[in-house]
Each structure stands twice: as C-alpha cells, then as structure tokens.
Design brief:
By secondary structure, this protein is α+β, with helices and mostly antiparallel strands. The chain has 3 domains: about 190 residues, Nuclear Transport Factor 2, Chain: A (Roll), CATH 3.10.450; about 90 residues, Roll (Nuclear Transport Factor 2, Chain: A); about 110 residues, Glucose Permease (Domain IIA) (Distorted Sandwich), CATH 2.70.70.10. Helix content is about 20%, strand content about 35%. A hairpin with a 7-residue loop joins strand 4 and strand 5. The structure holds zinc ion.
Length: about 425
C-alpha cells in the first residue's frame, strides 16, 4: 500500500511542477541601439527604413538642430519654420547631449534629410517630417512584457543576492516595498530566501526597458514563509495591493520603519546608560535609524502633520497625528518637506536624514506615541489593514492558484560555496 501512495505522490509532484510555460531565465543585457537590425521588415518609428539612407547618431556637445539640418541639405527657411511653428512639439533648444537621433535621408545623390527622429527616452520619440509641408509629432514605440522568474538565497544582502542572479536591481526596491510592512529588511539573515515573478518591459520586442511591478513573490525570513500576490483591491480606484495565500493584506496601517535600507543604530530602551553622562540612566524613547545624510524619511502611516519645527535637542522634526490613538515623530532632519496642517499619506517623503539637534551622526530618531505615551513600535501589535473584500475572494483564490504552484515549483540557485565545500569533503574522504 505504502509503495502505491509513494508512486502517486511522485506523479502528483512531477505533474504539478511540469515546466509548461516558457519563462525567460537567462539574464538580459541592457542595450542602447535604437534600431533593431534583423527585423524582417525594417518598419520602425512608422517608416520603412529600406526607403532611406539611415544615419544613426547621438547629440554631441556643440551640436544644434539647425547645424545638423544644414549639414544635411535642409534650407534656412525650413529650419526657421520648424524652430518657430513646432516649438510645443519639438523645442530645438532642448535637444540634449548624449540623446540618440536618426536622420532618414533620400537615397538619391543629394542625400538630403527627409525625416529627423529624436529619441526623448527609450520609449518616446519626436518625428520632424521635412518632406513637402513640414510636420512634427510625438510618438512612442511598442512596449511588450515578458514574464520572468527569479530566486535567491541571501548570503550578505538582498541587493547582492539579486545582483548575483543577474536580476534588474530595481527588483530589490520592489521586493522591499511589497514586504515593507511584514519583514524587517534591516534584519535579514543569511539563509533567508526569496522567489519572485515579475515582468520585464521590451521595446520592439528586443530592447530591454526595465523591470515592471512584481506579480507574485515568496519570502522566507527566519524560516517564516510569506507569500505575496498582486491583486486589484479596488477596480474603481485602480488600487493594487499584495495579499497572502489566505487573502490577508500584507499592508499594515504602519510601515515597519521610516527609512528604506538603513540600520537600527539604537533601540528603544528605558534603561539605557550613557558613559558620557557618567553612566547615568538616560532612557531612549525612540528607535534610531542610521542612514546617509539626505536619505528620504517616510511617513509610516497616513495622518495630519501637527508639528514641523526646530526645537533644542530634537533639531528639525516632524510630528504626525494618525488617529485618536497613534502619533509618530521624526527627529534630527536636515530639512522638513511638510508644513504643519498638511495631510500626508503613508510612504510620503516628509523630510531628509540630517544631524540637527543632539546627535553624533546622521540618523532619524523615530518616536511612536500610543495614547499620549511613547512606546516601542517594534514591540507593538500594530493594527492590520483590511483583508481582501469577501466578495472578491473566490476570484482571488482562482487567480492565485496557478501562480502559487509556479512559485512552489521554482528552485533556488545552488550556492557555489557549498558545492566547493562538498567537493573538498569528498576529496578528503577519498584520501
Ligand atoms: Zn533616538
């Protein structure tokens, strides 16, 4: 009997983890070329490139639109007309050094410029059509999305683990945002693991244009697994939140910390003794987050700014009232970004890390008030955000089921270090 169950189990596993979806796994190298050379029909930027002599270049120091056009046999009146008439679409004074442009020239002996294309960014471009009646317009390239999956085991830091896998570095930020409420990113541990499914943007199917938002993720911190699935919470307001496998919202009413990627330099401690003050007890009512000067300080929850001022040892600070129960305060800013009375949303930048007031290094002292008393936010049971609306839950569970299987079936990259150790062990065992 046991044997059969074992067999069934193996079949189920191999079935559920069948690799039936083509997913990009190789890292993609960033490209800068604007024209895709091997497209069968050379129709790009809305032109059939075969009809022209194509000149690809970038704006050099000292280049001007007028000069470039004169060199390519466009006469003064036309240049003047473009400069004046199409100022709103194409401001010739705003062409920037380093930006790519393309000149499509006639294939006859004159090689006169027919079309000028300026690439505002990797997706958007401006066309100046010099043929017949001159016209200028803006357009954008076709953007496609390719699903990509990645995983890693943390050796030193999350960003290193992401880099080691050749994953776009912006995925580090996205992951830390998805888990900002549930995982303390200052205290990631060696051996913490992640898996992530996200989309990559491509222009004309081939040119990499960055990572899109995370669709689903799995993070194992201190052995505790947390799933995250992007789901539209409110179709009217277009709000996408991340929920776990039980439809609990990963968002909390408070962020774990007011700074991304910093470290806690001093915790809330009522019995703190400081040698400088003769080893007397000087309670520390806040949590200090050290980060470089100028790092943005974020409001940990929605609320109204009740103080934005400078006073004594606090230096420049902001205090926010969130509701009848909770307030938070942020000290030693280099500069505030909000005024008293302003309403702020969770994650808004309210100021920047500095050294005003009593401080020996750049940090923010984060103070958390409950019913008028300062408490340790790291020990508080902070209120949860609402779970997914019950009417949406059946659809949600249907939607996440295949994605969860996909996450569960992903494997972690093998650690080369451990392999080496194993190889050494085997070698020494053989002696
Ligand atoms: Zn402090």
């Amino acid at each position: 009997m046991n044997k059969y169950w074992g067999l069934l189990f193996v079949i189920l596993i191999s079935f559920s983890c069948k690799d039936d979806k083509p997913v990009l796994k190789e890292p993609v190298v960033k490209q800068v070329a604007s024209i895709v050379p091997d497209k069968p029909v050379m129709k790009q930027f809305g032109f059939n490139l075969d009809d022209f002599t194509v000149q690809l270049d970038t704006v050099k120091r000292g280049d001007s639109f007028g000069e470039l056009m004169l060199q390519n046999k466009v006469d003064y009146p036309k240049i003047a007309k473009i400069t004046q008439e199409f100022k709103d679409t194409f401001d010739v004074r705003r062409i920037r050094v380093g930006k790519p442009y393309i000149i499509l020239k006639s294939k006859d002996t004159t090689e006169a410029a027919q079309v000028f294309i300026y690439e505002n960014d990797p997706i958007n471009y401006t066309v100046v059509d010099l043929r017949d009646t001159v016209k200028a317009y803006k357009d954008k390239k076709e953007v496609t999305y390719v699903e990509r999956e990645a995983s890693g085991v943390i050796e030193t830091s999350l960003s290193q683990a992401i880099l080691d896998q050749g994953i776009d570095y912006t995925v580090t930020n996205s992951l830390s945002e998805v888990y900002a409420w549930t995982i303390d990113f200052f205290r990631l541990q060696k051996g913490d693991k992640f898996k992530v499914v996200y989309k990559e943007k491509y222009i004309n199917d081939t040119i990499y244009a960055g990572a899109g938002p995370i669709e689903a993720a799995y993070f194992e911190h201190s052995g505790r697994p947390i799933y995250a699935f992007a789901y539209e919470n409110d179709s009217l307001k277009n709000i996408v939140d991340y929920f776990d496998e039980e439809a609990n919202n990963l968002r909390r009413t408070f962020l774990r910390a007011p700074v991304q990627f910093s470290r806690i330099s001093s915790r809330y401690n009522l019995k703190r003794r400081i040698r400088y003050y003769g080893n007397k007890v000087r309670p520390h009512m806040g949590t200090d987050y050290a980060a470089p000067r100028g790092t943005p300080i974020l409001a940990t929850a929605d609320g109204t700014v009740t103080e934005s001022t400078r006073r004594g040892g606090n230096g420049k600070y902001v205090k926010i009232r969130h509701n009848a129960t909770y307030s938070t305060q942020y000290l030693h800013m280099s500069k505030q970004n909000v005024k008293r009375g302003a309403y702020v949303k969770q994650g808004d930048v309210i100021g920047w890390i500095g050294m005003t007031g009593n401080t020996s290094g750049p940090h923010v002292c984060y103070r958390f008030w409950r019913n008028g008393r300062q408490v340790d936010p790291l020990k508080e049971e902070l209120p949860l955000a609402e779970p997914l609306n019950e009417t949406l839950q059946p659809d949600y569970f249907n939607y996440i089921s295949p994605i969860k299987d996909q996450l569960d079936c992903m494997e972690y990259p093998e650690s080369p270090v451990e392999e080496d150790i194993l190889a050494e062990d085997l070698a020494s065992a053989e002696k």
